[in-house]
Amino acid sequence: MYKPTTAQGDEKGDQAIHLEDSNRLSRRTAVGLFLLVAVTVAALAAAWSWPDRTLLHFWLVAQALPVFYALLAWWWARQTGESTHES
Fold this sequence. Notes:
Radius of gyration: 21 Å
Oligomer: single chain
Low-confidence stretches: none
C-alpha cells in the first residue's frame, strides 16, 4: 500500500502554499482564454446573425479570426516564466 510522505514543520506550509499557487491560472492566461472565447463567440454570432452577408462571413470568420488566434498565441507565448522561476 502506498503511503505518501509528509513534510515536517514549516516545509509543510510552504508546500501547501506552492501547490495552491500552482493550481491557479496566471492573469495573462486567464485574459487570453477570456479573449479567445469572447472573440470566437462574437465572430460566429455575427456570421450566424447575417447568413446572407457572405462577405462579412469571409472577412470575419475566415480571415480576421485566424489572424486574431495567431496574434493571441504570439502574445501568450511571450509571457515570462515568473511562475516557473520563483523559488
